[in-house]
Specification:
Largest sheet: none
Shape: rod-shaped
Number of helices: 2
Oligomer: single chain
Helix content: over 70%
Strand content: under 5%
Distance between the termini: 34 Å
Radius of gyration: 20 Å
Number of strands: 0
Length: 108
């Protein structure tokens, strides 16, 4: 994923640091990465099983229900992957913020 390319992500990180401090922001973003990654993993593991069941299903009602469930899971997965990308970029921006502030402290 790209680095801290958006000023919007960097500004968000600066605001987070102002509210929670560097360590609090670091912990928050790390936990977000863990939580989202777990959800992505769960869906990626569950989806093939549901797709397999859908392919074997003969009842049209059950088949429609499974197809709806698959579509929702795919939409959720795409949403989670986008959130993961955003949190990853924010974390990269936090690292940039920390490096930048360490350099500035040397000159004070």
């Amino acid at each position: 994923m790209n680095g801290c390319s958006s000023n919007e992500y960097y500004q968000t990180v600066v605001e987070m640091v102002n509210m929670m401090g560097i360590e609090g922001t670091d912990n928050y973003l790390k936990q977000e990465l863990i939580d989202i990654s777990k959800n992505v993993t769960y869906i990626r593991e569950k989806l093939p099983t549901i797709q397999s069941t859908y392919e074997k299903e003969t009842s049209s009602n059950a088949s429609m229900h499974l197809r709806y469930k698959i579509e929702n899971m795919i939409a959720l997965l795409n949403n989670l992957l986008k959130k993961l990308e955003i949190v990853d970029k924010r974390y990269i921006c936090l690292q940039k913020y920390v490096r930048r502030n360490k350099r500035e402290e040397k000159y004070i």
